[in-house]
Design goal:
This protein has about 475 residues and is an alpha/beta fold. Helices cover about 50% and strands about 15% of the residues.
């Protein structure tokens, strides 16, 4: 959840900077309103969107539960992990912020409802006018227009009502309400407030443009500046007068964005959006650190793959989801080819029967297999029970055979040592392609030794045929304090 929130903030920061640099000073106000609303929604949903073209190369594996090794009991070792408590604390703080923001929101809403019930009102086509006696205020909230009684009797009356009716007609209240609701969910995110303030200014630009079609600018803005209205601090209303925005409103009405520049900035936004989408999709790809050991190589084209001499090929490995071809030549060179989905029968792409015999299929992810591999002693169980039994048996095996003295003799002050491992149970049920990574080389070697001792298993199956399946298994070693 926290990763998602961080992605939302990063997306909003990018969209906000783009707006401030390229769009804020332009006069296509309706387009800017659409931009602020569209990018706000996009920043929330984009982290959930999976685009196959971008994410098809994401590595998929079966992740087993961590294996703990050490003199302490399993329950004691679990207490050494701080993430759970920290996560609970952060979640409690988040919920408290949501509750407080909700209370503040409904308090603002209550103030408006009280005014509607307390003060007299008059109904007109398309709006309801509420005459108040609190301060010298004038603003709209959906189809309600709130105005002080003295203002209703002043020469500004018609201008104020025309101004607020345009807000109502353009449904600006929905924009502000949307940002208020988002500020409840994302109460810690300052960009929602920035977006809301900016769109309120855009609303004023839209209204000013509409009124100046039949009013003279000097007369209109002079009427606005005749008085200063004290508007309450409610964020989802459209006030008639805002002293901080007035200068910008006057300046923007004196500008005109050329059509050519508007088209260019639309193209610029499309390019920026494509870049942001690709970046967030790339961040969503699963990245296991051990994969680099297998994936290093020179990316080649289909034609270059066909031109590799068969007699120079040491091995060819084809993976599914993601679709990749790894070629290792006898002189030690490594190549990677990314085939299309309809090219997975690559024997027709590689010249020479010698090379064709060296192709092997591996890395079938769990969701692609019909039956997962079975550890000895776990036969005859259901799907979930087999997975649970597999994890328990492999953890028991590793704790039994791992040489604990190696970790005790390491020159380290760490209380917990982590060894990330990866292996494949091939179509014969043997454990192959064992990889291990740790900050301590002796632990890597010991891990590989123990994993090579694993018994032969019942292989996974796909469409009734045995297939290799890859696993990721973290091993966490608890070191007792030295006395």
């Amino acid at each position: 959840m926290w990763t998602y929130f961080l992605q939302v903030i990063m997306l909003q920061a990018g969209f906000w900077l783009f707006y401030r640099i390229f769009l804020k000073r332009e006069t296509f106000f309706r387009w800017n309103r659409f931009y602020l609303l569209f990018t706000s929604v996009l920043s929330v949903i984009l982290p959930f969107i999976k685009i196959p073209v971008v994410s098809q190369y994401a590595m998929e594996t079966i992740h087993l539960s961590p294996v703990w090794i050490g003199e302490s009991s399993w329950e004691e070792n679990l207490k050494l992990i701080p993430e759970s408590g920290s996560t609970d604390l952060l979640f409690s703080i988040y919920i408290a912020g949501v509750v407080l923001s909700t209370i503040l929101f409904f308090n603002k809403l209550r103030q408006i409802i009280q005014k509607i019930r307390r003060y007299p009102h008059m109904d007109y086509p398309g709006y309801r006018l509420v005459l108040t006696d609190e301060n010298s205020e004038a603003y709209s909230f959906f189809h309600y227009i709130f105005m002080h009684k003295n203002l209703y009797r002043s020469p500004l009356k018609d201008t104020i009502i025309e101004h607020e009716r345009i807000h109502i007609r353009e449904k600006h209240g929905f924009d502000l309400l949307f940002f208020e609701l988002m500020k409840i969910i994302f109460w810690f995110d300052p960009f929602w407030k920035l977006f809301q303030n900016e769109i309120k200014l855009i609303h004023e630009h839209i209204v000013d443009t509409a009124l100046l079609q039949y009013k003279k600018p000097a007369e209109y803005f002079s009427s606005v500046m005749e008085e200063t209205f004290q508007v309450s601090g409610i964020q989802f209303i459209n006030p008639f007068f805002n002293k901080n925005q007035l200068k910008q409103r006057i300046m923007m009405q004196q500008r005109q964005t050329p059509l050519r520049r508007a088209k260019f900035k639309l193209f610029l936004f499309a390019a920026f959006l494509a870049m942001v989408t690709f970046s967030i999709q790339s961040c969503n790809k699963e990245n296991f650190s051990l994969n680099k050991q297998n994936n290093d190589g020179i990316e080649i084209t289909k034609k270059e793959l066909q031109n590799i001499p068969a007699e120079n090929i040491e091995s060819i490995t084809v993976t599914i989801n993601p679709n990749k071809v790894f070629i290792l030549t006898k002189d030690g060179k490594k190549y990677i080819y990314y085939p299309e989905n309809d090219e997975m029968d690559l024997r027709s792409e590689i010249k020479g029967s010698l090379a064709k015999e060296k192709i092997k299929l591996e890395n079938v992810p769990f969701r692609e297999v019909d039956k997962a591999p079975v550890f000895p002693g776990c036969e005859g169980l259901g799907t979930q029970e087999t997975k649970t039994c597999f994890s328990a048996k492999i953890a028991e095996f590793i704790r039994k055979h791992f040489n604990k003295e190696i970790a005790k003799n390491l020159n380290t002050n760490d209380k917990i040592l982590v060894i990330n491992t990866q292996f494949i149970i091939d179509e014969n049920g043997n454990v192959t392609n064992i990889l291990a990574r740790s900050r301590h080389k002796p632990l890597e070697e010991e891990t590989k030794r123990v994993l090579r001792m694993l018994p032969r298993m019942e292989p996974g199956q796909k469409d009734g045929k045995p297939v290799p399946v890859r696993y990721n298994l973290p091993i966490k070693f608890h070191i007792e304090s030295k006395k």
